[in-house]
Amino acid sequence: MTNNTFSTKTISLNQYGIKNAKVHYQLSSEQLHDETILKGQGIETSFGAIAVNTGEFTGRSPMDRFIVKDSITEDKVWWGKINIPFEPDAFDKLYDKVAAYLSEKEIYVRDAYACADENYRLNIRVINEYPWSNMFAYNMFLRPTEEELNDFEEEWLVVNAPGFMADAAVDGTRQHNFAILNFEKKIALIGGTGYTGEIKKGIFSALNFVLPVFKNTLPMHCSANVGKEGDTAIFFGLSGTGKTTLSADPDRKLIGDDEHGWTNENTVFNFEGGCYAKAIDLSEENEPEIYHAIKKGAILENVVLDENKNVDFSDTSITQNTRVSYPIYHIDNIQVPSIGRNPKNIFFLTADAFGVLPPISKLTPGQAAYHFISGYTAKVAGTEAGIDEPVPSFSACFGAPFMPLHPTKYAEMLSKKMQEAGVNVWLINTGWTGGPYGKGTRMKLKYTRAMISAALEGKLDDVAYQIHPIFGLAIPKDCPNVPNEVLNPIDTWHSAIAYNSKARELSKAFEKNFQKFSAYASDEIMAGGPIG
User: What's the rounded Cα separation, in Å, for the pair 518 and 511?
Assistant: First the structure.
C-alpha cells in the first residue's frame, strides 16, 4: 500500500458517540483506491480509475432529504416538499443509532474544507463507512495542507453510513434512506444510500443557508471559468444541460464545475476541490478535458465494464446517471486558487426537449430574474419511470433541491449583483432543434460552443436582434461560426404552425409553474415571462 505522510495518524471518534472504531484518518487517494479494491468494493478500470456500484440508489433521493426544524431554521427555511422538516428529538435518536452502528467498525475519516476563498472557508470532518466514499470526499472537497491539519477544527460534521437502514415507523424518516441537515448541531447525517452525491450536496445545501443568511454572499448551482483578460463567466444549469462540459473550455481556466459563491467584493469562488461529471455518452472527441481526467484517483460510478475492464459510456443498464468524480487538478487548465473576479457574462443553460427555445438569446434584467426563478429544463423519455415524451421540469434557481430559503431570496441577490456588476445574461438551449425530442436533433455542441465564445468575446454586442413572438427573447440574427438558420428555432422546423403550437404549450407550462412565485415577484420580473 502506498506510503503517505498522514496515513499513520489516527484519531478517536468517542466525542461523536462512535466507540471502539478502527479509524483510518486522512488516507491518501492511492491508499483509498487500494482499500476499495482489497475489500472487493471496486474494480480498477483500463483508465486506472476505480469503478464502484453505489447500490440501490444511483442518484439523490429528494423526498428523503430533511432539515431539522429548530430556532435557527424555523422562521427562515422555505418549508414544503423540497425542505421537509425533521424533529430535533427524532434527529438525536437517529444520530445515536447511526453512531452505535458505526461503533467497532473500520471507519474512514477525512478533514477537508469547502470554499476556496479563505474569508468564507468552512472546515469539514467527514466520517465514512466505506473507503471509496472517503475517496469521493478527498476528490470533491478542498484539501488542507499538513500544516493546516495540525490545528484543524471542524465546523461541520458529515456522518455517512450507507449500510445503516432506518426504521421509518420508529425513526421519523420516509423510508430506510435519509439525508438530514441539522444547522444547530452543524451535522449532515446520511444513511441507507451509497450515492456519493448526497455527501457533497449536503454541504452545498448547508452553504446555501449559511452564506446568504450570515455572510451576505450568494450561493450558486453553477460552473465558472475565467478568460485571459480576467473576465469571469458563470454557467447555471440543471443536470444534463452542459454545465460541466461547457465550462471546461481549452481557451479559459476552469474555476469549478458545480457550486460557487458570489461575494460582496464581486469575486466568485468555488466551494469544491473537484468535479462530479455525468459520464453518459462521454467521448474523447466531445469532452476531452473530462475524458482525460479519468485516470488513477478518479471514481467512476455505476458504469458498465467489458471483460478487459474498458468502460462502455453508452451503456445505461445500471442508470442514466453514470458519474465520474475527480480532483480538480486532473484538469490541466484550472484557475489557482479557484477564485475569479469581474463577472461579465452569465449563461442559463437549458436542455429544451420541446425544441422551441432559441439556442442563444439575450435577457433583460426582468427576464433574467424570471428564468432564474423558473430554472427550466426538460425530462426526456427514459430518464425516469413513466416518462415516454418530453416533460417540462422546473427547479427554482437551477437548484431547488439544495435551496433552503425561498427562491426569490436568491433571485433578489442575483438581480442586485447582476446590476452592480453590469453583466450580460444569456439563455442557452443545449437541447433540441428542428422539432421535439424524438423528431428533432440535439443542438450540435460545436454550435453551442461557438455561440458562447461569441458572447464572451463581445461579438454579439453590435449585431441585429429579433424578438421571439411568444417568449419575448432577443435572438441574434448573426453569430460567427453558426449557420443563420440555426439561430431562430422556427426556421429549423418543417411547419411554422407546429412550432408555434409547441411553443405556446411550453409557454403555458412556464406560466403555470410561476404562479406560486407571482405573489413575491416584482412587476419587472413578471414582465420577463412569455408574452405571446
Answer: 10
Q: Active-site residue 258, yes or no? A: yes
Distance CA 182, CA 169 (A): 21
Please say if 244 is a catalytic residue: yes
DSSP string, 145-188: -HHHHHT---SEEEEEETT----HHHHS-SSS-EEEEETTTTEE
Q: Among residues 65, 69, 201, 417, which one is catalytic?
A: 201
Rounded Cα–Cα distance for residues 72 and 345 (Å) = 35
Indicate which residue of 36, 173, 239, 245 is catalytic: 239
From the candidates 173, 223, 244, 374, give the one annotated as an active-site residue: 244
Question: Phi and psi of 423, rounded to 5°?
Answer: -80, 155
Active-site choice (221, 330, 371, 379): 221
The one catalytic residue in 171, 249, 258, 352 is 258
Amino acid at 340: G
- pTM, rounded to two decimals: 0.93
Radius of gyration of the chain (CA): 23
323 assigned to active site: yes
Which residue stretches of 387-480 are H helix?
A: 407-421, 445-456
**What is the full per-residue pLDDT of the chain (532 aa) written as tens digits?**
333 444 456 789 999 999 999 999 999 999 999 999 999 999 999 999 999 999 999 999 999 999 999 999 999 999 999 999 999 999 999 999 999 999 999 999 999 999 999 999 999 999 999 999 999 999 999 999 999 999 999 999 999 999 999 999 999 999 999 999 999 999 999 999 999 999 999 999 999 999 999 999 999 999 999 999 999 999 999 888 989 889 988 899 999 999 999 999 999 999 999 999 999 999 999 889 999 999 999 999 999 999 999 999 999 999 989 999 999 999 999 999 999 998 999 999 999 999 999 999 999 999 999 999 999 998 765 445 455 567 889 999 999 999 999 998 999 899 899 989 999 999 999 999 999 999 999 999 999 999 999 999 999 999 999 999 999 999 999 999 999 999 999 999 999 999 999 999 999 999 999 999 988 888 989 999 999 7
Active site residue 383: no
* Catalytic, out of 33, 243, 253, 409: 243
